[in-house]
Specification:
Elements: E1 10-13, E2 19-24, E3 37-43, H1 49-82, H2 109-121
Antiparallel strand pairs: 1-2, 2-3
Helix pairs in contact: 1-2
The structure holds zinc ion (ZN).
Residues 88, 91, 93-94, 107-108, 110-111 line the site of zinc ion.
């Protein structure tokens, strides 16, 4: 179950090379002051400003990415109930119990997506397959 602050979030440059704020509701004239939050403060590091800015944008997009990916996985899970899906022979989750684990070390895109959702939600990702 998702417990994070609902999106959308934005990356806002703090200016003068200080870094970026990840915010919700800021710089939005229509936002109620009680609904303006600083989610995180990102100080610049050894990476270039361009890379830091890209990282800030990626963090700010996280709630929308999680929502979109969860929606896609739900649709795929629904379709997998009625359509036989060929397991990915190189995926350790798709082939669990069918071949020695030493033969498969990677994950297919579907299981990578499930693992990413589990990482974001702090769960073990063991929803129905
Ligand atoms: Zn798989």
């Amino acid at each position: 179950m998702t417990q994070h602050t609902k999106g959308p979030w934005r990356a806002v440059d703090q200016g003068k090379g200080f870094g970026f704020d990840i915010v919700k509701g800021w710089n939005c004239p229509k936002a109620n002051p009680d609904q303006k939050y600083k989610i995180a403060e990102m100080k610049l590091n050894k990476f270039s400003i361009k890379e830091n800015k890209a990282n800030a944008r990626l963090i700010a997009a996280a709630p929308e990415l999680l929502e979109a990916l969860s929606g896609l996985i739900s649709k795929i899970d629904f379709e997998r109930q009625v359509i036989d899906v060929e397991p990915d022979s190189g995926c350790i989750e798709c082939t669990k119990g069918t071949v020695p684990n030493s033969k498969n070390t990677g994950l297919c895109d579907y299981h990578k997506a499930r693992a990413a959702i589990a990482k974001a939600e702090g769960s073990d990702g063991r929803r129905s397959r």
